[in-house]
Amino acid sequence: MASSHQASGIQAGRLAAPEIAENFGDLHPAYDPHEAAVAADRCYFCFDAPCMTACPTSIDIPQFIREIQAGHPASAAKTILEQNILGGMCARVCPTETLCEEACVREAAEGKPVEIGRLQRYATDILMERGEHPFRRAESTGKRVAVAGAGPAGLSAAHRLAMLGHDVVVYDAKSKAGGLNEFGIAAYKSTNDFAAREVQWLLQIGGITMEYGKKLGAELSLEGLAADYDAVFLSIGLAGVNALRASGEDKDGVRDAVDFIEELRQAGDLSALPVGRNVVVIGGGMTAVDAAVQSKLLGAENVTIAYRRGREDMGASRFEQDLAASKGVKLMFNVMPKAVHGNGAAAEIELEYTEVSEGKVSGTGEVTRVAADQVFKAIGQALEGQPACLELEGRKIKVSESGRTSMAGVWAGGDCASGGEDLTVTAVAEGRDAAMDIHSSLMG
């Protein structure tokens, strides 16, 4: 532990490496074959399965569970991957408790759903471990499609387009693919470099070229891509982070939660990662929970999530909220940041209590202070570097049902596009559906 002269401030090595390694183990360990068989036996194989309707990618859930029950996990994986090519990652990060599992008939009857997410992981892991890719590429169409952004939507679109015989070039601003799957979710949800392994597996379809270090609005222009390719798919995510709009947010120790999570996900040695003694995370979504829980797992003593509305309005699911509480994270509701205090570096954060009237949040004038040598901003992200030629809806690129933008030959999906929730599984569905529309458009 820290010596007394290091009592405050942000530092590495708050816990020993073995303890940190244990803390960051798999959140939901994989099923063994017997556990998978027992779990699959609980499924009623509903004819009009509500779980399928609740799945943004419309996976045939009763079918894949039946295939696991019959002892054919690789067939089950193919059923999953036909609809959701990133089914392995979605099995790990999907908020199944508010999607398929919440809709499960057994959840309604007994309060204990079939563990669909873990069954999905069981099947897809077996197929990937065999190194099998269950899809074959169609004959070349001679058409070329550019994909800007190698996150879930971009990878999903690229795979489907390549499978249909188009040549795809995927551009990404980072040095590796995966988007939020690689850089933006908690390490305990995706262990053993799974995101990168899944990308390599996906690329086995062939026909996809990856180009890194190329960002739309910097090295790439939309006009240039539209001129060089037969179609363009934008999946550029939300790279900008909203400001706290509180005095002192420029002090040392105040940073974006997404940057912290990215640094953690790419770190070779987690025990070398510095963390504060008193951490406050501003926000109420999955990113806030991921930053808070991981701060605690790194050895922060006091971690607080401060959210400006009530519990029921939190973007993070109840499961995520309970996970945070179980790790010792304190949840504060109806408070918003007013000022960060400290001499050059953060020492305390001043929070104002809020009230919500007709959906609008306002301050009450009553304030409280919380010790904070590290403050993470997790208050939503903004579109950055979007082409001026595209019509926006709110603060995102306006798209049709099938992902078409206001510019001919250009589609968009994932977090950068209007509609849908900002979830990996939704992004996969949007990428897949846009790819199908691009295909019909190119093939006349």
Structure in a nutshell:
This protein has 444 residues and is of the alpha/beta class.
How would you describe this protein?
By secondary structure, the chain is an alpha/beta fold. The chain has 3 domains: 33-129, Fumarate Reductase Iron-sulfur Protein, Chain B, domain 2 (Orthogonal Bundle); 144-239 and 383-442, FAD/NAD(P)-binding domain (3-Layer(bba) Sandwich); 243-377, FAD/NAD(P)-binding domain. 35% of the residues lie in helices and 18% in strands. The chain contains 17 helices and 17 strands. It has helices at 17-23, 33-41, 50-54, 61-69, 73-83, 87-93, 100-103, 105-110, 116-129, 152-163, 180-183, 194-202, 222-228, 257-266, 286-297, 318-326, 424-442; strands at residues 144-148, 167-172, 208-212, 231-234, 240-241, 254-256, 278-282, 302-306, 330-332, 335-341, 348-357, 360-371, 374-377, 381-382, 392-393, 396-397, 410-412. Strands 3-2-1-4-17 form a 5-stranded parallel β-sheet, sandwiched between helices. It has a 5-stranded parallel β-sheet with strand order 6-13-7-8-9. Strand 10 and strand 11 form a beta hairpin. Helix 14 (257-266) crosses helix 15. It is globular, with a radius of gyration of 23 Å. The termini are far apart. Residues 1-7 have low confidence and may be disordered.
